[in-house]
Design a protein that fits this description.
globular; mainly alpha; 480 residues; single chain; 19 helices
Length: 480
């Protein structure tokens, strides 16, 4: 086969690896497909992605990976990973696992080298979640090809799947919650009617599956995600009207959600009581152990009727705080804060980039809200999402640099002005003044739009977010 064909294929291996990573993370065939159960599919996928990056770096193609450490996201992620490893008493044992997680971030960042590839990643992310809907519907409608019905029955009839990720209703519910805004933003600019109809049908079935999980937290996240659909990119008067309606009708709608009749008496709920005890223990760790108990080491053990029962934190923030202490929580929040800043500063310079930005903002918002109700602190989706936002940041900077270069080429040089004067025998013309981009030539806008390093402002925002996290944490413990 021609070498050029191989070269062309290698250019896409990294992107294919990211797509496979998302599909295997959510659909998880390694948990229910005969012959694949227990198989480690992540290592081959990562090897495929690294091979693609290495092959691309050795060519002269425009599809080369990005230069390293050109965004604040990369710096924060590297420091975060280094802190996890070196603050642990078992550094050598956890180094490979932490390296793998961080590679999810860097593989996504370097695989997405143009806006088309970013759009493809967002589209396949949505397809992976649609696959979860198909599996969930198979359980409800009697063609259970993943043998998930026993798992659902074991959760008192609340819909769950036979997979490591989605084997409880809360995890499934929060996963489906992020699909609804994705469906909206992915098709809002599409003109084909059939695409909109199919997306509407998928949204209906996803909502039915979400309802069957009976997860209060997931329904709240889904409602927030749908609300974002009507706020992002809208005029201020529209936002005020939508928020007024949401605030006015929100309480009534929440009271109609499943299992909400117990919401007023949460203190009497044994599950909630156990969770609060776990949060109390974790909060004690943050006060007594500056660097926490170590990567994935915190475990809440509760004495109940003579038995020692392990209790999960059900919160990414609580888990990070107990495992990694305040420095680790600050770095974790820093990743999310710089991601939010990117999505607020850069709105997207083309319709496709705007849609990708809206999807990323919806995903990040749902992830951050879900972080108070489920623990996915060290999961693949966090690192892939951060990598996609970092790629969006780089593409936006690249566009600004191209605009700045165009401005420079339009400015006549002194020699050109002199030649014009000699040819026309007219007074020397005034130089053509094309407004230079603040991004290139300095100013306030340069600091905002051309932001490349994690600075004091980012630290202060992340620190404020950490204090707000601790305040919320303490408030929940005291009130419940």
């Amino acid at each position: 086969m021609d070498i050029g064909v191989f070269s062309f294929s290698f250019h896409h291996l990294a992107l294919v690896a990211v797509i496979l990573l998302l599909c295997t993370y959510y659909i998880r065939p390694q948990d229910w497909v005969p012959g694949m159960v227990g198989m480690n599919v992540i290592r081959p996928i990562m090897a495929l992605g690294i091979l693609g990056l290495l092959a691309r770096r050795g060519t002269r193609s425009s599809e080369k990976p990005w230069p390293a450490l050109r965004t604040p996201h990369e710096w924060v992620m590297l420091v975060y990973a280094g802190y996890i490893v070196f603050s642990s008493n078992e550094s050598s044992a956890i180094a490979f696992e932490v390296f793998s997680l961080v590679m999810f971030f860097f593989l996504t960042l370097h695989a997405v080298t143009n806006e088309e590839k970013l759009s493809r990643v967002m589209t396949w992310w949505m397809y992976a979640l649609v696959g979860v809907v198909v599996i969930a519907c198979s359980v409800m409608y009697g063609f259970d090809f993943t043998t998930s019905k026993p798992v659902t029955d074991g959760n008192v009839g609340r819909l769950s799947l036979n997979s490591w990720l989605l084997n409880n209703p809360n995890a499934l519910g929060h996963t489906l919650a992020s699909l609804l805004p994705m469906l909206f933003f992915a098709v809002i600019g599409k003109s084909k009617v059939i695409t909109k109809v199919l997306s509407l049908l998928v949204g209906v079935f996803a909502s039915i599956c979400l309802w069957e999980t009976q997860s209060k937290g997931a329904l709240i996240v889904a409602a927030t995600g749908v609300l974002l659909c009507f706020l992002i990119g809208r005029a201020w008067w529209w936002k005020l009207g939508v928020l007024a309606i949401a605030i006015g009708a929100g309480g009534t709608l929440l009271s109609k959600l499943p299992r909400m009749e117990k919401f007023a008496s949460l203190k009497d709920d044994e599950g909630i009581a156990g969770r609060i005890l776990a949060w109390q223990m974790a909060r004690g760790v943050t006060r007594t152990a500056p660097t926490g108990e170590g990567f994935k080491n915190f475990a809440a053990l509760i004495e109940w009727e003579g038995e020692t029962i392990p209790k999960a934190t059900h919160s990414s923030y609580v888990k990070i705080g107990a495992d990694l202490g305040s420095p680790g929580l600050l770095l974790y929040l820093s990743v999310m804060c710089v991601s939010i800043r990117t999505l607020l500063v850069h709105r997207g310079h083309t319709p496709r980039m705007r849609r990708s930005r809206d999807v990323l903002l919806a995903l990040l918002s749902c992830y951050m809200l879900s972080g108070w109700m489920i623990d996915r602190a060290y999961h693949t989706e966090f690192f892939v999402l951060a990598g996609a936002i970092a790629a969006f940041h780089r593409l936006s900077l690249k566009h600004l640099e191209e605009l700045a270069s165009e401005v420079e080429t339009k400015q006549p040089t002194p020699a050109e002005r002199a030649w014009q004067w000699l040819e026309t025998s007219q007074p020397e013309p005034e130089p053509i003044l094309v407004p230079a981009l603040p991004f290139k030539y300095g100013g306030i806008s340069a600091r905002i739009r051309g932001w490349r390093r994690y600075g004091l402002l980012d630290f202060l925002v992340a620190y404020a977010a950490m204090e707000a996290t601790y305040w919320t944490w303490d408030y929940v413990i005291l009130e419940l």
